Amino acid sequence: MRQMICAWLSFLFVIALCSPAAQAEQREPKEQWAPFQVALINPLQMYGDQVNIGGLRLDLIYGRNKSVVGFDFGFFNKSEELKAIEVGFANYTEVFRGIQLGVVNAAMDDSVGLQAGLFNGVGKNGSVIQVGLINDTTAPIAAANKVHGLEVGVLNMSLLPFSFWGPEEIDALGTTEFSGLEVGLANGKKQVNGVSVGLINTAYKLNGVQIGAVNFCEEAAGFQLGFINIISQGTVPFLPVINADW
């Protein structure tokens, strides 16, 4: 009797191992992590680009990994997900949580953190502080995106400083909705919920305040302070000094 029970249990165990679910689980690769990475130029690096780095990565020329958690230093740093302090000439990631310091900083998807450099780019959705020469908040293909935070730069824009010229119904320039404070020489967004301070401020739709020499929007729920204030679809399309609509 005992031998029969053991035989049945062995038979069921073999069946379970041979089942499609078990085989799929065996085929599914487990995530690999490494505490340290050195890359010359991908793929010439200690670990492959699908390995996650939890600790320190050094990219002498160009390094690429799935995820980086900790510290990331190099010339060109690339990852799918970054939860780190990243310093380099060019930094690129898709999902960003942390600090990017470089000449070029780019985060293409959800972003939370600080970017400081000559060019800072945030794609779809973000809560960020951007400090640089050019701060871009355009989703790269055509996706609508919402960005919250602070921008300080010469040009704070969605791809172009005057992106409101693009056709609204077929807008290849993206449809950035920015909420917060932007301070720059020229500010251009599809929609601004907050305050724009600059020599030139532009938006399709304004929910807040524009302060500058030239202020332009099509629709407004707020007011403009400057030499030239234009609300093209407002009650009064043009006024000097101050203009408002609700």
Report on the structure:
Helices cover 10% and strands 68% of the residues. It has 246 residues and is mainly beta. It has two domains: 29-100, no CATH class; 137-246, no CATH class. A nine-stranded mixed β-sheet has the order 2-1-3-4-5-6-7-8-9, with no helix packed on it. The N and C termini lie far apart (87 Å).
Mean pLDDT: 84
* Tally of individual helices: 2
Tell me the β content: over 45%
Count of spatially separate domains: 2
In order across it, which strands form the biggest sheet?
2-1-3-4-5-6-7-8-9
> In terms of structural class, how would the helical and strand content be classed?
mainly beta
Shape: elongated
What order do the helices and strands come in, and which of them pair?
Elements: H1 2-18, H2 20-27, E1 33-41, E2 44-45, E3 52-107, E4 111-122, E5 126-136, E6 144-157, E7 175-220, E8 222-231, E9 238-245
Parallel strand pairs: 1-3, 3-4, 4-5, 5-6, 6-7, 7-8
Antiparallel strand pairs: 1-2, 8-9
List keywords for this structure.
246 residues, mainly beta, 2 domains, 9-stranded mixed beta sheet, 9 strands, 10% helix, elongated
